[in-house]
Write a structure and sequence with these properties.
Layout: H1 2-29, H2 34-45, H3 48-59, H4 63-79, H5 83-88, E1 91-92, H6 98-118, H7 123-146, H8 153-166, H9 180-212, H10 216-228, H11 230-241, H12 245-270, H13 277-299, E2 303-304, H14 306-330
Antiparallel strand pairs: 1-2
Helix pairs in contact: 1-2, 1-8, 1-9, 2-7, 2-8, 3-4, 3-9, 3-12, 4-10, 4-12, 4-13, 4-14, 6-12, 6-13, 7-12, 8-12, 9-10, 10-14, 11-12
Length: about 325
């Protein structure tokens, strides 16, 4: 069960990376702008591991893993994924357009809490979430047209992904298009590897939870959530090394929005997701508190200093300690 979980997480990361590279190469070869690539391929593609794990868990009768994966990932994205890079170099939160997107992230968090308290996340709730995601993508495109001088974090991320996939630049500084065979291979391997990896993660995680008497929700909120957030962690750490503040913070904000609106929205369309008591009484509020903290920093154009990074990581460690030692009482 440990090998299944470990191999599944590795396969998810590799397959997700290949899928995004292949899709980005396809979009570039089709002549799409970096903005369109960022708003569609990259934003959704980097959340594919969370999507596949959540859908697989729900279909296998483990809705706690489906919801816990998203809630846990959003908590980890702020406290861990921003905390660790801040230890390397302080993250300045003054990128243009960052505040309005953080407001959207906070709004989606509040909406999710409200929907969870109203009952299971079912088809109607799924339509609402997916509709809001589509509206958000169109709004982002409209804002980009209004402010063409803005180079968003997701756009930079898309460009870097294409450069990494091509491994070289043309003399003019423009990424060379990937070969068609490479694009097809990347997409096929990614599409095959994601569901296989998701199945292994859900199977291994569930077995571990049952063996130790730990609820599925706790495993999803911790181990699986961290595993599916590793691509975001790698991106943010590299951004910190390169002093790319907007990439580090934008990576987290965008991922959290897609996780709530897209991942849970699709899951709710497939089948109803009952919300366990521990989510209503504790985990959702931790997610909201983390969003409020980062909103306060970004709203004042502040900086995530090393000391704040230590506080973030300490808070995340305390959260993990609490859910592991209190998990049985929370469910």
């Amino acid at each position: 069960m440990y090998l299944s979980l470990a191999f599944g997480l590795v396969l998810l990361m590799l397959a997700g990376d290949l899928l995004v590279r292949g899709a980005a190469g396809l979009a570039a070869r089709a002549g799409l702008s970096p903005l369109i690539i960022a708003l569609t391929v990259v934003a959704i593609g980097t959340s594919m591991p969370e999507l596949v794990i959540s859908v697989s868990a729900a279909l296998q009768g483990s809705p706690d893993i489906a919801i816990g994966n998203v809630v846990g990932s959003n908590i980890a994205n702020i406290l861990l994924i921003l905390g660790l890079p801040a230890l390397i170099y302080p993250i300045v939160c003054n990128a243009r357009g960052l505040r309005r997107n953080t407001v959207v992230m906070l709004g989606t968090s509040l909406l999710l809490i409200a929907l969870c308290f109203l009952g299971p996340l079912a088809f109607t709730e799924g339509l609402i979430l997916i509709g809001l995601l589509v509206a958000y993508l169109f709004w982002s495109a409209w804002e980009a047209q209004r402010h063409p001088e803005d180079v968003t974090a997701q756009t930079k991320k898309a460009e870097e992904l294409m450069e990494e996939a091509d491994h070289k630049l043309s003399p003019a500084g423009t990424p060379v298009h990937m070969a068609k065979s490479h694009i097809i291979a990347f997409i096929l391997v990614g599409c095959i590897g994601l569901p296989v990896g998701a199945h292994l993660v859900v199977e291994g995680g569930t077995e571990i939870a049952r063996f130790f008497g730990v609820p599925d929700a706790v495993i999803a909120l911790s181990l699986i959530a961290i595993g599916t957030s590793l691509p975001e962690l790698a991106t943010s750490l590299m951004a910190a090394f390169r002093h790319r503040y907007d990439l580090a913070i934008g990576n987290v904000v965008g991922s959290n929005i897609v996780n709530i609106l897209g991942i849970l929205g699709i899951n709710a369309l497939i089948m109803p997701l009952p919300v366990a008591a521990n989510f209503l009484h504790f985990d959702l509020w931790v997610m909201l508190a983390a969003a409020l903290v980062i909103m306060a920093i970004i709203g004042t154009h502040g900086t995530i200093t090393r000391s704040k990074g230590v506080m973030f990581i300490t808070a995340y460690g305390a959260y993990l300690y609490f859910i592991f030692h209190s998990g049985k009482d929370l469910v």
